[in-house]
Amino acid sequence: MTTPARTLIGRGRVWHKRLRPTLHSFHYATYFWLLPMRSLRQAPQALIQRNKRGLMSFHDRDHGDGRADALDWFEELLLGAGVQDADGEVWLHTFPRVLGFVFNPVSFWYAYRADGSLAAVLAEVNNTFGERHGYLLRGPELKFGAEMRADKVFHVSPFCSVEGQYRFNFQVRAEPGQAPHSTLVRVDHDDTDGPLLQTSVGGRLAPLTHRNRRQAFFGTPLMTFGVMARIHWQALRLVLKRLPFHRQPPAPKQFLT
User: CB count, 10 Å around CB of 103?
Assistant: First the structure.
């Protein structure tokens, strides 16, 4: 039996840049967790306060179809999509709940093979209307540093129409044989006229300890409350810039693209 992997905490920045019809950009300090979901099944870790109240916690119902075990849901999703070789660790890149509150614009599920290669990545997207959609990336071209594309089918922002493509790029830096020490995810959106949005989230990684958790909590107070507040603040700025407004279309009938 392999030694269970430890939960990691990342501290870095969220960055967003809109290119058209007017330039609009912002960046914020943030932190996030990388949860080794299969290791947590084998050996729970008290620091993540799973499905409990706490300064920071992880609740399974915040992901997938809301069931009591989010990993069960993800494994069923993989098998239903024909991904049968994800027999290694499953890492979930997500925001924790802070004082019981969380809003995750996007979380990333990394499904590994036993040899350490990527079998699939799921981008699990939430919008502010309470809807959720997943973009599953897989295939022989899937690897860190490579660009992957998916058609946009899910409404996220009223300032972007549901058209075009997302371009995903996942980067992880690690010394040979060591746990990763930094990560960066880029998600860019192209519409029919070309590049429209450029976004990224990433930071340096460290094992989740009492000290690191405390430093993150007090270093970025009420971080997940701030996510929602900043979304609405940036929306107000775009309204003042008179950007076109797109009404919310019906959600896709299928969860997975």
Answer: 17
* Over residues 97-123, mean pLDDT: 95
Q: Which residue has the tokens 């997975």?
A: 256
CA neighbor of 7 nearest in space, from 253, 180, 174: 180
Task: Tell me the C-alpha distance between 188 and 70, whole Å.
Answer: 27
Sign of CA dihedral 253, 67, 96, 212: negative
Stated pTM of the model: 0.95
CA distances from 242 to 3, 236, 239 (A): 55, 10, 5
Residue 1 scores a pLDDT above 70? no
User: Do the Cβ atoms of 106 and 231 come closer than 8 Å?
Assistant: no
Return the residue matching tokens 């614009």. Answer: 105
H/E stretch holding 91 reads strand 90-94
Q: Which residue, among 109, 131, 130, has the nearest Cα to 118 in the 3D structure? A: 109
Tokens of 138: 């897989």
- CB distance 32 to 95 below 8 Å: yes
The span from the CA of 92 to the CA of 63, in Å, is 10
CA distance 240 to 101: 29
DSSP 85: -
At a CB cut-off of 8 Å and minimum separation 6, what does 138 contact? 81, 83, 119, 120, 121
- The total of other beta-carbon atoms located within 10 Å of residue 231's CB is 14
Asked whether residue 177 carries a pLDDT value surpassing 70, the answer given is: no
Residues 137, 121 contacting (CB under 8 angstroms)? yes
Inter-residue contact 148 to 141 (CB < 8 Å): yes
